[in-house]
C-alpha cells in the first residue's frame, strides 16, 4: 500500500492524506459510537477532478472507498471495516457555493458543504432551503443526499429526493456524471440522479448538487400542545391539513417517556407533561399575527391537556430547541435500540398500540421512547430498557427488532425512513425487502461497480 499512498499524495497533496491514528480517529467512529473502523488512510480531495483521479487510482490498486460526509450516520454507513485496507474519502474541502439562481429558485453547491451552510446561502439570497435536521451544523449535503434525509419539514417540502434537481457524481470507474440541471421538467430518458439519492455511497460518490429553493416564509405560528393519545394526534393532523392545507409545515409527536428523558437533561426547557405532545408549525407569506390568531382559534375548539402558542421568535425557537435536543438527550441517557420506522399516517395508532403490547408481553416493564415526524408517518421508536438484570441491552436487540419490524411491515411500512440502512440494518433489509426489488438493486450495483469497491460491507 506504500506505492498507492505515494501516488495518492501526488494527486491530492501529502497534507491531505491522514494516516496517523490521532488524525484519523474523528473519522473512524460513528456518531452512536457503535462501529469502530481502522482505515488505510483518510483522503481529503479538494475538487471533483481530484475525486475522479482518486477513484481511478483506487480502482487500479483495488482499494475500497468509504465516502464520508459529516460522520453523523446513525447506522454505520460511513464507517470503514477493521481491515486497514479501506480508504475513507471525506469531502470537507469541497464546500463551494457554485451558483444561486433566484429567478429559477435553485442552489448549486459542493457536496462537502454543511446543511447549515446551504441554509445560510439560501437565506442570504432571500430564499429558503427547507431541509432541517438537529445535526445541520455538521452533516453535509452529500450525506443528506446519500441517505435521502427528511427532517421536520417533509410534510410540506418533501425529502432530499424531492428537493434535488441535479447531481454531479464520480462513478466507480472515475467518470464524472455531470447533471447539475435546474430543470423541473425533463423527459429525456431515465432520471439518473435518483439512482444515487439514498444509495449510501455504494453506486458512486456525489460531489455536487442543484437543490430547490423556496420563498422565505414571512409568518410562522408554532404551538406545543398535550393530547391524550396518538389517536387524537392523528385526528388533529388530518383536521389541520383540512383547515390549513400546505401552510401546515411540521407536525411532530413526543411520547411521555421521551418527555421524561428531556426533563432529566433539560429541566428548564421541559415544562410539559402529557401522554403525547404535538409540535405544530404553520408558515406562509402573509401576516404573522393573523396566522397566529388562526391557530389559536383552531386550538381553542380542541380538548387539550396543556399547551402554549409561541408569541414571538424567541419562544418559537425555544419550542423547536426542545424537539432538537431529543436525540442528544437520549444519547446522554444511555444506550437504546433504535428504530427509524415509517408507516402510513393512518396506521400510526395501530403501530404504537399493538407493537407496545407485543413488546410488553415478551419484555414486561420494557421502556419505549417514541417521537418523530407524525406528519409523514416517520417515528423514531427506541427501546432503552428491556428487562431487569440485563447487563447488555443489545442482547435483546434481535428479538426486539423482529417484533417491531414485523408490526411495521404488516402495516405497509419500512424499517428505514430517513437514516438509511448502513451496516446496522442490512440483514433486516434482506429479510423484509421485496426480493425482486433487492435483486434489481444488486444488479445495478454489479453494473456500476463490478469490483465492489464503493462502500463495501453495507446493504448492497
Automatic annotation (TrEMBL):
InterPro entries the record matches: FAD-bd_oxidored_4_C, FAD-bd_PCMH, FAD-bd_PCMH-like_sf, FAD-bd_PCMH_sub1, FAD-bd_PCMH_sub2, FAD-linked_Oxase-like_C, FAD-oxidored/transferase_4, Oxid_FAD_bind_N
Pfam families xref list: FAD-oxidase_C (PF02913), FAD_binding_4 (PF01565)
FAD-binding PCMH-type domain: residues covered: 35-216
Domain of life: Bacteria
Record has Flavoprotein as a keyword: yes
Signal peptide boundaries: none
Classification via PANTHER family: BLL6224 PROTEIN (PTHR43716:SF2), D-2-HYDROXYGLUTARATE DEHYDROGENASE, MITOCHONDRIAL (PTHR43716)
Family assignment from sequence similarity: Belongs to the FAD-binding oxidoreductase/transferase type 4 family.
Annotated protein name in UniProt: Hydroxyacid dehydrogenase
Species in which this protein is naturally found: Chromobacterium sphagni
Amino acid at each position: 500500500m506504500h506505492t498507492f499512498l505515494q501516488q495518492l499524495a501526488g494527486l491530492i497533496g501529502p497534507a491531505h492524506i491522514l494516516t496517523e491514528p490521532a488524525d484519523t480517529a474523528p473519522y473512524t467512529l460513528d456518531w452512536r459510537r457503535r462501529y469502530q473502523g481502522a482505515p488505510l488512510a483518510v483522503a481529503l480531495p479538494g475538487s471533483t477532478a481530484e475525486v475522479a483521479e482518486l477513484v481511478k487510482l483506487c480502482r487500479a490498486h483495488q482499494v475500497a472507498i468509504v465516502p464520508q460526509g459529516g460522520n453523523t450516520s446513525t447506522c454505520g454507513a460511513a464507517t470503514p471495516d477493521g481491515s486497514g485496507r479501506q480508504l475513507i474519502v471525506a469531502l470537507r474541502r469541497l464546500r463551494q457555493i457554485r451558483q444561486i439562481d433566484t429567478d429559477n429558485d435553485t442552489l448549486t453547491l459542493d457536496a462537502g458543504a454543511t446543511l447549515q451552510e446551504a441554509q445560510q446561502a439560501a437565506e442570504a439570497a432571500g430564499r429558503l432551503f427547507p431541509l432541517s435536521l438537529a445535526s445541520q451544523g455538521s452533516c453535509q449535503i452529500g450525506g443528506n443526499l446519500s441517505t435521502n434525509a427528511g427532517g421536520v419539514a417533509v410534510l410540506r417540502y418533501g425529502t432530499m429526493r424531492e428537493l434535488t434537481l441535479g447531481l454531479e457524481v464520480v462513478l466507480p470507474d472515475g467518470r464524472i456524471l455531470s447533471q447539475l440541471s435546474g430543470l423541473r421538467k425533463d423527459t429525456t430518458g431515465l432520471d439518473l440522479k435518483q439512482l444515487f439519492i439514498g444509495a449510501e455511497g455504494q453506486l458512486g460518490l456525489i460531489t455536487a448538487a442543484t437543490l430547490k429553493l423556496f420563498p422565505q416564509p414571512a409568518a410562522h405560528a408554532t404551538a406545543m400542545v398535550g393530547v391524550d393519545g396518538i389517536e387524537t394526534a392523528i385526528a388533529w393532523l388530518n383536521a389541520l391539513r383540512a383547515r390549513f392545507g400546505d401552510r401546515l409545515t411540521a407536525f411532530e409527536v413526543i411520547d411521555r417517556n421521551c418527555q421524561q428523558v428531556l426533563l432529566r437533561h433539560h429541566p428548564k426547557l421541559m415544562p410539559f407533561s402529557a401522554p403525547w405532545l404535538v409540535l405544530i408549525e404553520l408558515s406562509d407569506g402573509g401576516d404573522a399575527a393573523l396566522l397566529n390568531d388562526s391557530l389559536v382559534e383552531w386550538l381553542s375548539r380542541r380538548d387539550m391537556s396543556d399547551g402554549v402558542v409561541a408569541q414571538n421568535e424567541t419562544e418559537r425557537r425555544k419550542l423547536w430547541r426542545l424537539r432538537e435536543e431529543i436525540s442528544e438527550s437520549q444519547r446522554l441517557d444511555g444506550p437504546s435500540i433504535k428504530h427509524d420506522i415509517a408507516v402510513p399516517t393512518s396506521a400510526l395508532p395501530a403501530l404504537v398500540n399493538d407493537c407496545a403490547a407485543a413488546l410488553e408481553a415478551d419484555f414486561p416493564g420494557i421502556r419505549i421512547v417514541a417521537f418523530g415526524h407524525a406528519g409523514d408517518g416517520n417515528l423514531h421508536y427506541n427501546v432503552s430498557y428491556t428487562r431487569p438484570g440485563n447487563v447488555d441491552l443489545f442482547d435483546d436487540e434481535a428479538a426486539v427488532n423482529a417484533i417491531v419490524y414485523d408490526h411495521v411491515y404488516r402495516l405497509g411500512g419500512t424499517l428505514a425512513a430517513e437514516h438509511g440502512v448502513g451496516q446496522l440494518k442490512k440483514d433486516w433489509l434482506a429479510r423484509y425487502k421485496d426480493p425482486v426489488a433487492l435483486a434489481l438493486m444488486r444488479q445495478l450495483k454489479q453494473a456500476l461497480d463490478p469490483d465492489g469497491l464503493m462502500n463495501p460491507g453495507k446493504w448492497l
